[in-house]
Amino acid sequence: MSLFEHHMLKEIMEQPAVLAALVERSKGLLEGDGGGLFSGEGASCERILFLACGTSYHASLAGKWMIEALAGLPCQVEYAHEYRMSARLPLEHCLAVGLSQSGETRDSLEAMQKAREAGARTLAICNVENSTATRLAHAAFLLGAGPEKAIASTKVFAAQFAAVFLLALHLGVVRGRLPREWLEKHLQAFAALPDKMRQVLEEGGFVQEMALALREAGHLLVIGKGPAYPIALEGALKLKETAYLHAEGFAGGEFRHGPMALVEPRIPSLMLMPSLPQEGFELMKGTLGEIRRSGGPLWVLTQKPLEPGEGMRVHTLPEADLFLSPLLFVAPLQLLAYRLACGRGLNVDSPRALCKAVTSDPQGSL
Ligand code: M6R
Q: Ligand 1 centroid vs 266 CA: distance in angstroms?
């Protein structure tokens, strides 16, 4: 099979088009009724609860960051499988958002059902039309990313990320928290995103170099702060499931509370440094300095200029709205997972022991 026949690569490269289609739909938010994007959902709720698994969970974490900042609503994100087993608490005045590519993930469906029975209004955000999740929820938003065939989710993550950004804007508007000029500003930034994503996908040199350097690696520490934290988790998941590399994602501030002890000359790290406000960026630079002093090989993706230094490779990404920047960081990580998996001769589209939708619980018998 040639490289271009791999669904994963094709789907990674489709991301600018997937985003462009959502940019078109986002114009509806400028209309009085919100253009039917999310109808009136969330206008009177007091909190948001995301329920999801895997990649969809990571997009939900991004959603929490955006909804709290743009709509001022408290937001909770739960792994659907953990929520299923948790204490049954009332959920009045809560909008429970089930995020799922397939709309058929057993844990997510059970969790949404439980949230609905506890009094929440439910919204499904899915890629598959007429999936069980869309029928179970009070309302649904379809991502429209087209079929995703590779087991590792890539273009749907981009669509989910964009959808929760639009949901955050919508909630900001219907709750009177987001003035029109700010809505327009965010939508303009969103409209510029597909081209920036295309640019990032075309700059393959850094990824290629990193994939070669990591060919024999057994571990990778991926560190991101604020909006880049969900991306650190998502990048690590892509590397695990497609390249079988033990990669772990960490929150920037958490790294010094234990994980730093792992760093030594055989353990490589990758730092994701979006254009955070100065204080956050300086904190990340501090962590970066500590990793370098511990002698671990270091790779850095940054949006602000950073001097390259010994033992450290730096690649600069285009600037973007802080809320949207994470998507520019995820693209190189997806490509890295893909290149590394190909270099290791693995079946990138269908990794061992995984399936596209986890529709049943594990069997109990040994
Ligand atoms: O279809 P869903 O979004 O509900 O699936 C959730 C996870 O099983 C899924 O995201 C999984 O983690 C993917 N293999 C990630 O690439």
A: 31
